[in-house]
Each structure stands twice: as C-alpha cells, then as structure tokens.
C-alpha cells in the first residue's frame, strides 16, 4: 500500500511539472518577425514617384497664381462693363470664381506647406477684385456727382470757388441822319465790366438708397465798372464809376430722387426739385448815385451804390437728368423749369429822387443741356457739354397800377463747358470747369474749382 502511494505522489509531481511548463510556454512572447529585404528596383520607383510629385506641386502653384490673375482681370472688366450689361452680371461670375479662387489658394498653401501671406504681387483675389471694381467706377461716380447726385454716399461736403467775367460794350446813337450822310444828335458809348467771385458751401445727405437732400449756401463778392461816353455829343468824354458788393447769396434746398437705376439700355434717371430762398441782397430799392445830369435835370448817368447778391424773390425748380455709361464714354443730359413767385418791395424804381413801392415778378426760366465725358483711367475724366437757360421777360407793377413787362429783361444764356475731374484720394475729388459764353447774355467766361469730400 505504501509503495502505491509513493508511485501516485511521483506521478502527481510529474504532471505538475508538465502543466507548469505548458503555461510558461503559453505566456512567453512570440519571436519578432524578420523584415523582408528591400530591393534596389523598389527604391528607384519610390524616388521617381517623389520627383513626379514635386513637379506636379510646382506646376499646380503656378496654375493657382495664374487663376488669381485671371480672377482679378475678370472682375475688373465686369466693373468697367457694368454700365453696358448691368450690375447683375458681376455677382454671377464673381460668385462662381470666388470659391474656385479660395479653393485654389487653400490648395496652394497646403501644397507648399506655408501658412503665411501669399507671395509678393499676389494679394487675395477678393480684395484685389473689389479694389479694381471701385477704381473703375470712380471716374463714373465723379461725373454722376457733378450732373445729378450719388446715392451710395451718406454725406458729401463740397467746397467750390467760381470766377465769372462779364464785359459788354454798347454804342448808342440818339438823333437823326441828315442828307443820308451826316448824323445829328448824341453819340454815347456804354460799357459795363463785371467780375464776380462766388464761394459755395454745399452739403449732400444720402437719406435712402434712392433719395438725397442738398443744401447750397453761396457767398458772393462782386465788382462792376460802369463807363459812359458822349457828353456834349463827343464820344471822347467818358465818365467812369466803380461799385462793389458782397455777402450771403440766395440759399437753395433741393432733393434728388432716383426714378430708374442704370441697366441695359435704360440710363440712370433722376428727378430734381428744390426751392431757392431770397436770402441775398435784392436789386430793388438800392440807392443810386447820380453822376451826370442834363441841363433840364434829366439823369444821364447813374449807378447803384452797391451790388446785389440775390434775385430778391422765391423760386421753385423741377428738373430731370439722365446719365448713361458707354465705356469709355459717359453720356449725360438734363432739362428743367424754374418758376419765380411775385414779391412786393418798398421801392422798385431806379430813380434815386423818387420812391415807388410795387411788385416784381421775374420771368419763368427753362434750362437744358447735354454732354459727354471720357474716363481716361480710374482717377481722371474729361467732359465737354453745352448748357442753355432761356428766361422770359420780367414784369413790374407799381402800387395800384397794372403789370408792365420790362423790355430787355428776357435772356438767352448759352455756355460751352469743359471739365476735368481728378481723384485726389479715396474721399476727395478735384473738379475744374471752364465755361465759355456763346450768347451776349452769358458771361464771357467762367472758371470754377470744386472739391467734394465724401465721408
């Protein structure tokens, strides 16, 4: 029995040893696999693929730069052609181009592995396109600002200075012709030379995208020289007197309403209406200085003691203007009507020895004009235009009397205008205008400089 127990213990020890060895074998880590050897042919293929990848990256970067350049050029051309085809074309192509340009820019940055700004000479396509569009429209906006109004500006302050020269000579013969060869009577030479300098301060508010409100406040300085000859029948005897005057002129308040924006064949059409207040010194009731009398005390030569600075009556005006871009030309035209209200004064007689109260009603006026401007570049434009103003005869009525038309008070003032605009910066523009009188009622010439500043 003891022998059997010894055999059992030995067998158990043997099984325990075998079980422990198996478990240890299972817990031991497996040996690492042996890496296969790389052949020289495979290494050559990898090098060739890497070279092809680098070449494709370089070509792709060049295509991205080219895409940016084309995008900027397309947007600039769209801005210049906006007057022909309307503004609707720009969003379509620009919307399609913008994602492509953005994706190209991202791809270029990813391929180059750079996160900094693009290379010199290549800015963001959206920013450059916007700048190109604004630059192309600047000359057009400057022309529109002078002809009607800009509706995309909140506030514009305009300072202008205008000089006008008026010179008229008149030979009068008061008598009769004897024997068809000898003139018997009084020969008189009359000459009036007038110089005026006007400073105008104007403010233009953009109330809405289609309506602007304007206020013009002029200040005038005038000098007039009167010459009269013919005393005693001799044209050599000439009397001369100079008078001056200055101060606030007639303040005007007006509004511009855009009826139709420019699109396809329809020009931008603007309705203008306004009122002019008689804030200046009226020409009625001004004291006159007598320089020469006849033997019977008839006044032969008298001049006003000071020059007026306004019309003296309320006026209302309404007009219509149109602007059409036809790259590189800009066509514009206007037409309007001015109505003058009658007004009473304490004295309407030019005779300094009498005082006659009465009423004055200036004649209605019609004005029209047309011209063309050429935008040379984003800063400069040249314009040439014709303007005319037709005024009917004025009427006066002494207190208790009838209305009488004033002979010679009607006028036809035609002017040929030349203008140059130059953009000083993104806010200010210099406008120079030269007007040449074509009719006797227009100034001989006028020269104006304007600087509108857009806030």
Automatic annotation (TrEMBL):
Coiled coil: 39-80
Compositionally biased intervals (Low complexity): 110-127
Species: Stenotrophomonas panacihumi
Cleavable signal peptide: 1-25
Disordered as annotated region, ranges: 110-143
Keywords in alphabetical order: Coiled coil, Signal
Bias type Basic and acidic residues, positions: 130-141
Protein name, per record: Transporter
């Amino acid at each position: 029995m003891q022998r059997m127990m010894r055999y059992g213990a030995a067998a158990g020890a043997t099984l325990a040893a075998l079980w422990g060895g198996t478990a240890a074998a299972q817990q031991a880590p497996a040996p690492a696999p042996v890496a296969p050897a790389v052949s020289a042919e495979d290494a050559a293929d990898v090098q060739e693929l890497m070279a092809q990848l680098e070449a494709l990256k370089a070509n792709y970067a060049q295509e991205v730069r080219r895409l940016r350049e084309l995008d900027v050029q397309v947007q600039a051309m769209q801005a210049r052609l906006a007057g022909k085809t309307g503004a609707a074309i720009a969003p379509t192509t620009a919307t399609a181009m913008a994602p492509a340009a953005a994706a190209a820019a991202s791809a270029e940055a990813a391929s180059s592995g750079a996160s900094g700004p693009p290379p010199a000479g290549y800015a963001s396509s959206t920013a450059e396109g916007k700048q190109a569009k604004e630059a192309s429209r600047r000359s057009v906006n400057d022309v529109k600002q002078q002809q009607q109004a800009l509706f995309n500006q909140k506030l514009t302050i305009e300072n202008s200075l205008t000089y006008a020269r008026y010179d008229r000579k008149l030979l009068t013969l008061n008598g009769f012709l004897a024997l068809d060869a000898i003139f018997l009577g009084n020969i008189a030479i009359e000459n009036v030379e007038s110089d005026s300098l006007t400073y105008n301060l104007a403010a233009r508010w953009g109330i809405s995208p289609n309506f602007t409100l304007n206020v013009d406040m002029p200040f005038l300085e005038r000098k007039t020289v009167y010459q009269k000859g013919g005393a005693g029948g001799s044209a050599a005897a000439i009397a001369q007197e100079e008078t001056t005057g200055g101060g606030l002129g007639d303040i005007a308040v007006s509004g511009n309403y855009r009826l139709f924006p420019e699109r396809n064949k329809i020009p931008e059409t603007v309705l203008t209406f306004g009122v002019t207040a008689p804030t200046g010194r009226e020409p009625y009731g001004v004291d006159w200085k007598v320089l020469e009398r006849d033997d019977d005390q008839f006044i032969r030569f008298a001049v006003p003691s000071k020059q007026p600075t306004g019309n003296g009556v309320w006026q209302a005006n309404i007009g219509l203007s149109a602007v059409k871009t036809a790259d590189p030309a800009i066509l514009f035209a206007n037409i309007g009507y001015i109505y003058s209200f009658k007004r009473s004064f304490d004295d309407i007689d030019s005779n300094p020895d009498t005082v006659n109260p009465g009423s004055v009603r200036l004649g209605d006026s019609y004005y029209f004009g047309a011209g063309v401007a050429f935008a040379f570049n984003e800063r400069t434009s040249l314009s040439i235009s014709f303007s005319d103003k037709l005024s009917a005869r004025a009427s006066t009525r002494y207190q208790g009397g009838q209305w009488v038309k004033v002979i010679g008070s009607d006028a036809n003032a035609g002017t040929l205008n030349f203008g140059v605009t130059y953009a000083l910066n993104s806010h200010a523009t210099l406008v120079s205008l030269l007007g040449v009188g074509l009719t006797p009622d227009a100034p001989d010439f006028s020269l104006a400089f304007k600087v509108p500043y857009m806030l």
